[in-house]
Amino acid sequence: MGKTTLDVVVFGTANIEYITYVPELPKPGELVAGTYMETCFGGKGANQCVAAAKLGASTVLVAKLGKDESGDDYLNHLQQHEVDVTHVQQVENNPTGMSEIAVSENGDQYKINVAGANVFLTAKDVNRAKKSFHDAKVLLCQLETDMNATMCALRQFKGISLLHMSPMRKDIPNAMIGLPSILVANQEAAANLTDMEEVTNPDQARKAAETLIGKGAKSVIITMGEQGAVYMSKKSKDMCTHVPASDVPHLADSSGAGDAFMGSLAYHIARFPKLSTEHHISAAHSCAAYSMGRRGTQPSFPGKESAKNDLCYSTPTFSVIPPSSPQHEDGAKTPPPSIVAPTPDEAHSQKEAEEEPPRPAPPPPEDKILEAPPPRTSEEPPKVVETSNEPPKPVETTDEPPKPAETADEAPVKPVDTANEPPANKA
């Protein structure tokens, strides 16, 4: 027998979850009647560890439990799922962490978390588990633990590390974004990390992924619920792929879907390292969809008999998201390439050009056909009668009022009122 390899090491929390199912979530101060209640083993670290173990991964959990009945029960539960609990310590005089969760009929939920013994998980525990960190292929971390301890775990690990940006926090240092091999965030976390108003479609997810890559992330997966997930890597940041979600025939409880996705992702990366990330994401989608059809968190995760371990051997369905133009990013339509909107100055110039086309019909005074040579006389020259372009006939001038003609007796020479003959020079 060869040496047993370690697939996944998880650094995270372990909680007891009290889940209540209600028709709809209560408003502040409102009392609603629950339809069902159950107690489950939870905590993001332990959840993701159990999700990978149920699929068949060899796992180690680094966590803290209280030295109480709940802690004893949890330790036995982990061992039943063949999780290595060498580095799960029970803390004296401290309770095991707990979470209160309410789930509505349409899948909405709220969660209240009491850390308990989880607050004692520090960077020292990374050093105590250094052999497991050295041997494991994949590291899983979340944001429920102390931030400095999580960053220490990510720095110490030399394999493929996954950081699940959940639950989202406001005090995330920029240096943390560049530590994991793969940064995994949902739509809300992606918008928060990139200062975007929202991330609701694959195009916006691509923009968020580009921003996170620009902040130092090595690769990014943005999960988008029923829309699937978007993936981008720094090594090929010009290519962004969209992997659609798996079908959920019946929605029972979505509370464990994210942890099912992460545990499955870690398992498939560890067991099928030569396949593409799109393969791994597609397989993780399948496990998350399975989880959503069942109640509870860890009880909803698929096991070896429920999950298809050959998922990574099937060709995944995914598409490439092209880069968005600035107009698309702003939600505006892109005009055809040959149409360029003019600036205000250009528009004014164009308007003047339209109002002043080439002069095919200059004003009558400049019309060479009607222009007459000025008379040579020592007296005041007669005034040239301006005419319109109408057919020749005796008409009054169109550009000058008839008033000068009424005072013609005051001038030395009376102008001729015809449009076809030049004015005569009468001495």
TrEMBL record:
Enzyme class per UniProt: transferase
Active site, renumbered: D259
Protein origin, superkingdom: Eukaryota
Activation and inhibition: Activated by a monovalent cation that binds near, but not in, the active site. The most likely occupant of the site in vivo is potassium. Ion binding induces a conformational change that may alter substrate affinity.
Compositionally biased region (Basic and acidic residues): 345-358
GO-annotated molecular function: ATP binding; metal ion binding; ribokinase activity
Binding positions for substrate per the UniProt entry: G43, K44, G45, A46, N47, E144, D259
Region ranges (Disordered): 314-427
GO CC annotations, alphabetized: cytosol; nucleus
UniProt keyword list: ATP-binding, Carbohydrate metabolism, Cytoplasm, Kinase, Magnesium, Metal-binding, Nucleotide-binding, Nucleus, Potassium, Transferase
Localization (cell): Cytoplasm; Nucleus
Residues annotated for ATP binding in this entry: N186, T223, M224, G225, E226, Q227, G228, G258, D259, H285
Keyword hit for Cytoplasm: yes
A Pfam family reported for this protein in Swiss-Prot or TrEMBL: PfkB
Primary localization: cytoplasm
Positions contributing to K(+) binding: D253, S255, S291, R294, G296, S300
Cofactor note: Requires a divalent cation, most likely magnesium in vivo, as an electrophilic catalyst to aid phosphoryl group transfer. It is the chelate of the metal and the nucleotide that is the actual substrate.
Pathway of action: Carbohydrate metabolism; D-ribose degradation; D-ribose 5-phosphate from beta-D-ribopyranose: step 2/2
Similarity remark: Belongs to the carbohydrate kinase PfkB family. Ribokinase subfamily.
Function recorded in the entry: Catalyzes the phosphorylation of ribose at O-5 in a reaction requiring ATP and magnesium. The resulting D-ribose-5-phosphate can then be used either for sythesis of nucleotides, histidine, and tryptophan, or as a component of the pentose phosphate pathway.
HAMAP family registered for this protein in UniProt: Ribokinase
Subunit structure: Homodimer.
Name of the featured protein: Ribokinase
Organism taxonomic ancestry: Eukaryota, Metazoa, Ecdysozoa, Arthropoda, Hexapoda
Encoding gene (name): Dsim\GD28477
